[in-house]
Amino acid sequence: MASHAGLLMVVKSNKGYVRKDGTLTQDKTQARIIRGLEFGFKDASGVAKSLGCFEDLDFEFETLEPSYDSRLAMMESFFHDLGMDYRTAYSKAEYLFNAYHLYDYEKFKQYLSVVESETAQEISQGRAKEVAELDGRSVVLYGIKKSPSVNEEYTEETLYSTQKRYTKYTFNLPTPDVEKYFVLNNKEKEYYNSWQIEGLDEYLRERFNNENAIKQIRINDNNLEIYIEGKNYRLIEKISNAIRSYLSQKEMHITRMFGSYILLMKIDGKLQATLATEIPIKYCPLMIKLLEEVGGETALSLINSLKTTDPEKQKELMCKLINEVVINGGYFDTNRSLNSCEANVLFGASETISSAFQSNLLDAAVIVSNNLGTIITTNAPSTQGAVKRMTGLFYTSPNENLVKEAKREGIIPVFPYSAKIDQLAGVKLAIKKGYKRIAVSVAAHDNYLHEELKRLEAEHNVTIYKFGLCSTGINKSTAEIMRDNADVIWSCASKYVKEEIEPSSLLQVGIKIPVHIMTNNGWKIVLNHLKCMDSEFNENIELTERPVILNDKGHMKVLKRSDVRKCSDCPHPCV
Question: pTM, whole model, 2 decimals?
Fold first, then answer.
């Protein structure tokens, strides 16, 4: 195991090394030496506790002398860089290990430096990849290979100078792309898009000033580039944690309510709504219901403002409402529980997915959660608990506490260090993990992803239940993609859902904010939810007349479309 890759190791934390009596010391020579699997397969925290150290700290192993297998892997890596396949590289490393008696660690270190130098010389005969400033001097580097990290948070690239091997780690930094949601001038756009990551490189340079392996840290075209001598995954994990910590301190989110996009920023340690767009609709029964439940002067004022034509007053009230109700209500509380059985709306996406989990129709769901980004859930409580009452989330910031809580609840954060929202990446990871029945929700303009999701479904021979959400304001081409590829679509206050999608649906659930079922798979998962709400519901429905199903005092009622009167309580105007 990677955590036991040393023949001789010590256990350390940010407060010092663990002695044999369990106390901590800053002097490594006084630390208790751990020999291989002396403590079995316990992690570093487990070994620390075995020694009597019960400090609430993050412990890790530090290798003093790598194990035989680790030494073989180190040598094999150089031969692989020279173009050998893994089998050949391993065989050569094994032969040299025995021929030159590299069980002796001092001999191994000497021989490894020779292998590194010879590999560097041979590779440097090729074409230069780039020139980088490393340790304050220009170094010509030659490229070998580039590969993504396990969770795609970064890519790593092996580079050589004429003397040494380096690894270049490139982190694609998150950006809110505010221009997709807000009308801003170039100066404002630049400010908001760079606000969260500004100063990150200086922060990392100062924090890792004593790490001699780091040769360069820089931000280049929204990418964080870090050059390290050799390879050091332990150090990269520390850097990844530091990046998350920095982004958490400069927290930023984009959410939506009443069709209005709202930007939240943590300023002077306090999260607050700072920007809102004009509210495009005058009435939405769901939002009115939720606001009336919340109550309060601001909620009432916002409802009344929808009757006016003062967009600036609406924006002001929207920001105030987000501060008072959403933020103060704990929806961005980084200590919140991610486990809940509370159903907030009858025909909601998370409620439908939760019912599917309860009936064993699903293996996994790819959804979005604030402070986590794209996540994979595998049960009903974590699905409902991760989303609560969020009405759309388009950008968010990571948080270490919630990542730990997520893992305790069996939730898989797809981007645990950056909290990126990328539903396509989430589905690909779910497929890679072996899940065969997957639900995924995409929102607003990202509904164009349904086409690619359908392609993935066919390519990998899996079932993907594709949910289209938050459709208010989508354009006609996006609606056409949803119509042709999605399974279930929430109409919201979308003009093009009414024009392009509703006429093509198999049936409709609800009248105020219709849910349109587009495919047999969509009907399968929605039917299950209806039966969970009403055990007496008769599933033998003739779909040829595109029926409408609605809730009638806790029981599901089926109407012919021709019998449905024009809705007097629907969102308007449709945009």
Answer: 0.87
